[in-house]
Amino acid sequence: MIREGHTSGKGVCTMTSKSHPPLMKKHSQTDLISRLKSRKILGVGGEDDEGEVHRSKISQVLGNEIKFAGREPIGLRLWILISAIGFTVMALMALVFPNQLYEVVFEEELSTTNISVRLYGGALLSLALIMWNCLYTAEKIVIQWTLLSEACYFTVQFLVTSITLIEIGILPNAAVLLLLSRVLFLVVTMAYYYHLGRKPKKI
């Protein structure tokens, strides 16, 4: 009797183990249909109202900056190149010839140490490096921040130069030309910055 019970119990265990086949892992990443269904549920892979195809939900929410390369304002890259060259030249002049640079603008000898002019050249060189990097990027936000930094520099330089001219009580032609150029550069820079900040109109 004991043997029969043991045998019957063993048979039940054998039937139970045979009724459940081993689980097989399904590789959903290689299943094309499953991937298409998932992308359709997430709402990616198709075109939006602007005709842009998003590859992920993140790009759909944040936007795709790669498309900016085909719709950038006319002359933007040329303006960034001119700015980069100008900042680099002024930085090198301030670092190498600080006294001469000061004399050209204010038409008088530098009464204080030339360390301040060289520090000014170092700051200009840092901005120039940002300009050169911005020239080769396609990220809209990077270009916007670069233009904003350039506009801030032109504004500060205009104010500092104006206050200095008022303090020394002279108005050299070179300083007037510098102020006018800074106003012009500020207007152009802010125009590009405003153009990049506008949202494209939907047709």
Structural class of the secondary structure composition? mainly alpha
N-to-C series of helices and strands: HHHHHHHH
Distance between the termini: 88 Å
Counting DSSP H or I runs of 4 or more residues, the number of helices is 8
The residue fraction in helices comes out at: 55-70%
User: Low-confidence parts lasting 5 or more residues at pLDDT below 50?
Assistant: 9-16
Major sheet description:
none
Structural Rg: 34 Å
Mean pLDDT value: 75
Strand percentage: under 5%
* Cα shape: elongated
Number of strands: 0
Explain the overall architecture:
The chain has helices spanning 2-19, 32-42, 57-62, 76-96, 98-106, 115-135, 140-168, 173-197. It starts with a helix and ends in a 6-residue tail after the last helix. The protein has a domain at 72-197. The radius of gyration is 34 Å and the shape is elongated. It contains 8 helices and no strands. Helix 4 crosses helix 5 (98-106) and helix 4 (76-96) runs antiparallel to helix 6. By secondary structure, the protein is an all-alpha fold.
